[in-house]
Amino acid sequence: MTLTKRIIPALDVKNGRVVKGIQFKQLQDIGDPVASATAYQDAGADELVFLDISATQEGRATMIEVIERVSAAVFIPLTAGGGVTDLASMKAIIQAGADKVFLNSAAVDNPALITAGAALYGSQAIVGAIDAKWDDVAKMYRVYTAGGMRPTALNALDWAETMAARGVGELLVTSMSADGTKKGYDIALYQALQARLKVPIIASGGAGSQQDFTAVFQDGAVDGALAASVFHYGEMRLPELKMHLYEKGIPIRL
Q: Which of 7, 70, 75, 224 has the fewest CB atoms lying closer than 10 Å?
């Protein structure tokens, strides 16, 4: 049985509102998270990702109240994160109605948190999130934390392997270089990841056309494709995108 590929709108939330930027900057207000989530579900989204983009920088927990409101309004799988620092914050997100929690900055600071979370909730509930940017000097994809603000010494490919070994059920990998540019997904990044990993990979950053989705599924061989700008601004409708992918022979839920 062939697993269908997933189309996943991203809801970046700051101060209770959905926002979107370019390469993690120049944030613009998009609207209410519940209204956005409901609209995406009705349009055929397979899953939703909820990210509290300022939680880590502001040193606070994810906005649980917003997760509760979103999860009460939709029945498709919801992944949430941002500011997850310990098992208690993971528990709060799951109890608020999220199906999966993603770990980013906290996992870099404390990799044992991945293992503990997977042991408690199962690998299927733990998503490893990686923000990666090509470093031309070091000739590697460098891992960034704190919402893309803090460079680390980690090679993204090595870190992805570590996260998988620690027990994440899938990886959500954002190319910071491509994010918000609408010039296409970073296919080279996902091909490099696929060569080293067996866990499902969700691509994020750079979607600008239907062909970009086709390319990341066919050439990048990812399991899911996440996007925000093209959906938020009405530049691409989910039903038309899914029909396009179906016609290209990509297994998709219509």
A: 75
Q: Which of 42, 46, 86, 131 is catalytic?
A: 131
What are the tens digits of pLDDT across the range 112-167?
A: 999 999 999 999 999 999 999 999 999 999 999 987 889 999 999 999 999 999 99
Residue 131 falls in the annotated catalytic set:
yes
| H/E segment holding residue 148 | none
| pTM for the full predicted model | 0.92
Residues contacting residue 182 through CB under 8 Å, at least 6 positions apart = 206, 207, 208, 209, 212, 229, 230
What token pair was written down for 153?
């010494």
From the list 151, 110, 107, 155, the residue with the least C-alpha distance to 129 is 107
User: Which amino acid, one-letter code, is at 138?
Assistant: A
Please check whether residue 166 is in contact with residue 115, taking contact to mean a CB–CB distance below 8 angstroms: yes
Summarised one tens digit per residue, pLDDT across range 16-62 is 776 665 544 566 676 788 998 999 999 999 999 988 876 555 555 55
Cα 189 versus chain centre, distance: 15
Name the catalytic one among 12, 52, 179, 186.
Answer: 12
Active site residue 186: no
Between CA 225 and CA 204 the distance in angstroms is 6
